Amino acid sequence: MKLHSIKAPSNNLKTRKRVGRGEGSGLGKQSGKGHKGQKAMSGYKKKLGFEGGQMPLIRRVPKFGFKNRFRVEYTGLNLDTIGQFQENGKLGEVITIADLLNVGLADKNKPVKILGRGEVAKGFSIEAHGFTKTAIEKIEKAGGKTNVIE
Questions:
Q1: How far apart are CA 126 and CA 99, in angstroms?
Q2: Does residue 54 lie in a domain region?
Q3: Count of the separate structural domains present in the chain
Q4: pLDDT tens for residues 22-70?
Q5: Above 90 in pLDDT, residue 123?
Q6: What does DSSP assign to residue 16?
Q7: How far apart, in whole angstroms, are the C-alpha atoms of residue 57 and residue 117?
Q8: Which segments of the chain are extended strands (E)?
Q9: How far apart are CA 131 and CA 114, in angstroms?
Q10: I want to staple 127 with a disulfide (CB 3.0 to 4.6 A). Which of 34, 36, 132, 147 is the partner?
């Protein structure tokens, strides 16, 4: 291989647009911007959602309801799921948030809430950010403990 035999890759051969270099180029005089107007001026920035003075879609569409910005989104975790993971040996008698994260049942950015679906076969100690009443009843009935984390 010699230096004179090397060719540039095909995607590198595209010539750049030379604006304002005469009428023959096709991009002379107004340089592809047409005759004056807002878009022809320097510093033009189209506002997001602007539709040329027409009432924008975001304002035309009716809006209903209320979105609470401060709502806390929990990761729900049922007792039957915890029971299955205990049977498989992935969770022990004492269950912490770290254990749930390691197994993949919890998300590190969301608080965990234990829900009451399913039955508890044997008692275990568990900590979470929230519990439903039925979950607390079933865990304590089986001889377990619940610990609420703030």
A1: 10
A2: no
A3: 1
A4: 999 889 998 888 888 888 888 888 889 999 899 999 999 999 999 999 9
A5: no
A6: P
A7: 44
A8: 75-78, 94-95, 112-115, 125-128, 130-131, 145-148
A9: 5
A10: 147
